[in-house]
Write a structure and sequence with these properties.
Strand order of the largest sheet: 1-2-4-3
Strand content: 15-25%
Number of helices: 2
Shape: flat
Order of helices and strands: EEHEEH
Number of strands: 4
CATH class: Alpha Beta
Distance between the termini: 51 Å
CATH topology: Alpha-Beta Plaits
CATH architecture: 2-Layer Sandwich
Helix content: 40-55%
Length: 89
């Protein structure tokens, strides 16, 4: 299944998960990408029960979206470590 914009550009998945917290993670990733001005399309079991949660972006922005996701994950890990160190002081 491929979603398209009015220009018929394909949207491709940059995140897929069937984990118990997949919806929350997908919504978080969607928010991060949209804050970076990357349009998204959320696909999940609420639309088609046999699917995992997925976040799709326009194909030409997929590499940028992956970078934004990785940067956010790294920042999240660093922020968690900093908070733990601060709570120990």
């Amino acid at each position: 299944m491929t979603a398209t914009t009015q220009n018929e550009e394909s949207f491709i998945p940059v995140f897929t998960s069937g984990n118990h917290d997949a919806e929350m993670e997908a919504l978080t990733i969607q928010g991060i990408l949209e804050a970076s001005e990357i349009p998204t399309l959320l696909v999940g079991p609420h639309m088609l029960p046999s699917l995992d949660f997925q976040v799709h972006v326009p194909e030409h922005l997929a590499a940028k979206a992956q970078e934004v996701i990785e940067d956010a994950r790294r920042a999240g890990s660093s922020a968690a470590e900093e908070a733990e160190l601060a709570s120990e002081a």
